[in-house]
Amino acid sequence: MLASLRTVLTRATDRAVVHVTGGARRPGEPPIVRPRLPFLGHALEMGRDLTALLRECQREHGDVFTLLVAGRRMHFIVDPLSYPLVLKAQDNLTFHEIGDEIGSRAFGYRSIPAGADLDALEALYGENLKNAALGPLTARMEERLRAAFDRHTSDDWRDEGLFDFSARVIFAAGMETLFGDGVAEDGALDDFRRQDRWFPLLAAGVPAAALPGVLRARERALWRVDPMRPDASAFIRARDLLLAKITDRRNRQHFQNAIVWASQANTLPAAFWTLAHLLDNPPARAAVTAEVDARGIGDLKQLPKLYSSMCESLRLCSESLTIRLVQRDCELALAGGRTIALRAGDRVALCPQVMHRDPEIFEDPERFRFDRFLSEGGGPRQFSRRGQRVPIPLMPYGGGVSMCPGRFLANNEVMQFAGIALTHLDIELTEPALPPLDKTRAGLGVLSPTREVQCRVRRRSRARA
């Protein structure tokens, strides 16, 4: 009895030490970067500049190391050659628990247990957001983008903040494409921004009631997505019907509101940066504009320069984390035949932004090059590190089971937005340089600018075109 008690106390003490300091390094485990602060560990440094922190750790400890973040051990793997091995290790590394925890905290829904209902819900993404189903959504998106541009411009010059202008157009078009006309009326964007502003704290577990204006904004958003409009997309209709079978109306509203955030939070800044980089680079703007003028935007596959420009913008502005939970004590195989030991309950994290800014992979990585992702023959370009091909050189949408299921529609929307803006509007930046990225949301996706970018905009008349 006494021995059993000692064992329980020892395990509890070991867990407490791990939560506070990261614990002792066991054989085969990655090196532990000792934190200055107990429990919080490196959380504050990550919040200031995640990529800078990881680069510093990489220089000192190599491509695999362990950080303590809010009481959790996180093993960061920054060698892109190992990424496919991590993403395929689904027997020992899982995502469902992490995604479920973040989603329920941030959007207030009650989780749907793993099983047939959840499988059916996740299957809807593949059935409605890619392949043949993508065509009608893309056509509808073009229609709503043109309507939104028309609403927010005139024949006379208007002074605008480019980020705000992009957000108004993208939000209206994206919402109307998915949920139908009328859903993006006055106030809808403000309510979205209120929830998005506090998303990092919501995801971390701070109650919505403790954050200014979040509950009221959420309630209005729930009211907007509740009615099924006659022109709502097949995806939203199918999702609503399935949710109605497996949960109550209130919870169904919360799930639909989660789709609002998922469809907008990264697309808004991605569209802004793609257009801003092209406007800020005259040769790139001229090349892409000529391509769109010549081929139109009806077939986006015929616009490789525009696609490469979007990819280059995503390389520069996306800073997502791909995280997995370690289910059981195990060994994880990495590139080059190396293995690392992992403990149950630890987390494994990939931060593609380190790869995106690696000068060995991307020459002059801080500079926007619109044709970076095009080979001399016009097809996709290959990239290498240490003499080996990098299998996934661009990861703005995560990877594996947690890869964003709406990425194809998001890419199409960003390309359509930039293509229409360049060919149907006159847009001039009225300041000499683009702002840096806002690093306070590092790890959560595409980053916003630290400040607004001033410009002037008008519709392009046929006489001026």
Automatic annotation (TrEMBL):
Its main location: endoplasmic reticulum. Keywords: Endoplasmic reticulum, Heme, Iron, Lipid metabolism, Membrane, Metal-binding, Oxidoreductase. SUPFAM superfamilies: Cytochrome P450. The keyword Heme applies. Gene3D superfamilies: Cytochrome P450 (1.10.630.10). It comes from the Bacteria. Its cofactor is heme. Pathway: Lipid metabolism; bile acid biosynthesis. It is found in: Endoplasmic reticulum membrane. The keyword Transmembrane helix does not apply. Belongs to the cytochrome P450 family. This is Cytochrome P450.
